[in-house]
Design a protein that fits this description.
Elements: H1 8-21, E1 25-29, E2 41-45, H2 52-60, E3 66-68, H3 72-80, E4 84-86, E5 92-93, H4 98-113, H5 126-140
Parallel strand pairs: 1-2, 3-4
Antiparallel strand pairs: 4-5
Length: 148
């Protein structure tokens, strides 16, 4: 998980799923994180700096892994390495949609940089949480269990 800006409620859903499905889960951030004591959950603190956590995730991701991130460029990189990417709002990035999402993101970033006022994302909702939990459940129930 790209944990720097992930909502607490999503982390809690991820922690419960890791325990229930016995799936090794790593949270990567450039700040200390509090995680439950568990053989299935660990945190990895990286140095401060732009995209340092993203680079570490890309270096460690393996084909078939799931990366939870709202960072579309990171999602594109992990998908290119054979992993999957899931936005905390529940959007599953795929080879079919990640390049389009990246193009839209870049367009919106350019408009904001040009001074055009464009509204940010809608507030995080219960349906976002549910969509995330459903995709996560689908993924973890199809993974082999990790021996603690």
């Amino acid at each position: 998980m790209d944990a720097d800006a992930c909502p607490k409620v999503i982390k809690e859903i991820l922690f419960r799923a890791a325990e229930r499905a016995q799936v090794l889960t790593t949270l990567v951030a450039n700040a200390s994180l509090r995680v439950p004591s568990s053989p299935f959950i660990r945190s990895l603190r990286v140095e401060q700096g732009s995209d340092v956590a993203d680079h570490r995730i890309v270096l460690q991701v393996q084909p078939g892994d799931l990366v939870v991130t709202a960072d579309i460029p990171l999602a594109a990189l992990v998908i290119a390495r054979g992993a999957r990417a899931l936005d905390p709002r529940g959007e599953l990035y795929t080879e079919d949609n990640v390049q389009e999402r990246l193009a839209v993101r870049n367009l919106m970033q350019g408009l904001r940089a040009g001074g055009d006022l464009i509204a940010g994302p809608a507030p995080f909702s219960q349906s976002d949480r549910q969509r995330f939990a459903n995709h996560l459940d689908h993924f973890v129930t199809r993974r082999p269990r990790v021996e603690g």
